[in-house]
Specification:
With 478 residues, this protein is of the alpha/beta class. It contains 16 helices and 18 strands. Bound molecules: nicotinamide-adenine-dinucleotide.
């Protein structure tokens, strides 16, 4: 590793200095009350709002993300995360009493959530503002110090995040270190207490290995292929409208985007035509999306090439392009695209798509669908469009997924009372609201002995006949 990494011109020595400053400040920071944490969160909220236009501009400069999407999926999500924390922080940080078993008669117990200490947040580029700041909010709410490394692929947004956070926090509480994988690797070598990583499953494995070195706890918010099932009782127009929106927001560069759809054979034609109709309504049609100010670009040429490779490979192996398939290199433009006649050896059927290509399979028997999905890694999300409660319950019971939205796409993400995250390959641990607060906290169990003659003392050695009887009695009755 070089002493100075290239992408952000910060040396590893400087990074270590920031880390040491946070470590030295930790004793002061973890003693800060809920009231003071709330004040910080309010200041953060005001500062973010005062830079709302700057965030829109930065995101447009990075990859033409439309301003309303920045407002809704970046700023709004952060505001709800902050609101939730402010509203509930006294409860979350307060002593949470638990029951006492009879064998411990004379004691009382509670859980106290305490800060973990030094925390590292590593964020991806696809929602670079909220995926950086939401975990940061939870970590501050929990009373920690935070080093945040945003993505190198959204340089305008990442440097704005740094500027904004610097207005609110001293470096010994919150610091932003910009940089690439080399910087992230260096950060991962430091002894953090908790690492909150959002990104791909392959990098997630690297993060978890590095965390094992210090036995740091991890939250891994990862990706994968999220399926959608449209059965023969579903309202096809509604399903197509919501799937098109879920697939094409941010040009499909969404961890929660539906990756592939299983549509009942009898509804295939209706679904394809309804999907095309929705694309026309939202973006003027697959051939006109280039001219729409509401259609985002692919983040960079590498990702565009990756998607082009998927498409070429699929077509070469016999896939039909039902819609789109238009690529304009110098614009990083990939049109809304639908493929059918898919085979398992196609790259697009194996890899997370993370782009505006929807795969449409058909089925006649739901057990085939269940078998197909369960033969793959557990998805981050499962979507079911059906009017049949029986079918919905059957699918919920048979398919494991990080989260589920029934009759819509991805909106379970917006309910901060729900845990958000994946399972195994799609993630470990949960984000949002109290769930994220707990990820960043140590749940300290505290028991106090009040009795001058506790029952447990009667079981100390020497183990007389009477003691043994008491132990037998305890085993039998308590
Ligand atoms: P990525 O894994 O390539 O990068 C994420 C972060 O990790 C970046 O900050 C990057 O600099 C850093 N990184 C890259 N290589 C690294 C290495 N070797 N060691 C340590 N850190 C490294 O992911 P991405 O391309 O930025 O984002 C897309 C992926 O993220 C998709 O798989 C998507 O599904 C997933 N994602 C998941 C969620 C979620 O909430 N579950 C949200 C958004 C994106």
């Amino acid at each position: 590793m070089s002493a100075i990494q290239q992408s952000s011109n910060i040396s590893f020595t400087e990074i270590k200095n920031v880390f040491d400053k946070q470590q030295n400040n930790l004793h002061r920071l973890i003693a800060i009350t809920a009231t003071d944490r709330i004040k910080k969160l309010k200041r953060l909220r005001e500062t973010i709002l005062s830079h709302q236009q700057d965030f829109r501009d930065a995101m447009f400069a990075d990859y033409r993300k439309p301003a309303p999407e920045v407002d809704l999926i970046e700023i709004y999500v952060i505001l709800t995360e902050i609101k939730q924390a402010i509203k509930n922080l006294y409860r979350w940080t307060g002593k949470q009493k638990v029951k006492t078993p009879f064998s411990l008669f004379g004691t009382s117990s509670y859980i106290q959530y305490e800060p973990k200490g030094l925390t590292l947040v590593i964020a991806p580029w696809n929602f670079p503002i909220q995926l950086s700041i939401c975990p940061l909010v939870s970590s501050i709410a929990a009373g920690n110090a935070v080093i945040l490394k945003p993505s190198e692929f959204t340089p305008q947004t990442s440097s704005l995040i740094k500027k904004v956070l610097f207005e609110v926090f001293p470096e010994n509480e919150v610091a932003v270190i910009e940089g690439n994988a080399e910087v992230a690797t260096y950060l991962l070598s430091l002894k953090f207490n908790h690492i909150f990583f959002t990104g791909s499953s392959s990098v997630g494995k690297i993060v978890m290995k590095a965390a094992a070195e210090h036995l740091a706890s991890v939250t891994l918010e990862l990706g994968g292929k999220s399926p959608v099932i449209v059965d023969d009782t579903a309202d096809i127009e509604t399903a197509a409208r919501r799937i098109a929106s879920g697939k094409l927001t941010n040009c499909g560069q969404v961890c929660l985007a539906p990756d592939y759809a299983f549509v009942h054979q009898s509804k295939k034609v209706d679904f394809l035509s309804a999907y095309e109709k929705q694309v026309k309504k939202m973006y003027g049609g697959s051939d006109q999306a280039l001219l729409s100010g509401d259609y985002t670009r692919i983040v960079n040429s590498n990702h565009l090439l990756r998607l082009k490779r998927y498409l070429d490979d699929a077509v070469q192996k016999g896939a039909n392009i039902e819609l789109g398939g238009v690529i304009i290199d110098f614009e990083n433009y990939f049109s809304p695209t639908v493929l059918t006649n898919l085979k398992e050896d196609m790259l697009v059927a194996q890899e997370e798509i993370f782009g505006p290509i929807l795969l449409v399979y058909t089925y006649t028997d739901l057990t085939e669908v269940i078998r197909h999905i369960n033969s793959k890694e557990k998805p981050l999300a499962l979507y079911i469009f059906s009017a049949s409660k029986r079918t919905i319950n059957l699918l919920l019971g048979k398919i494991s997924a990080g989260g589920v939205t029934v009759n819509d796409i991805a909106i379970h993400f917006y309910n901060h009372n729900l845990p958000f995250g994946g399972v195994n390959n799609s993630g470990i641990g949960k984000g949002h609201g109290e769930w994220a607060f707990r990820e960043f906290s140590n749940a300290k169990g505290v028991l106090t002995q009040w009795s001058p003659i506790p029952i447990i003392e009667m079981m100390y050695p020497p183990f007389t006949k009477g003691t043994k009887k008491l132990i037998d009695f305890t085993l039998k009755w308590f």
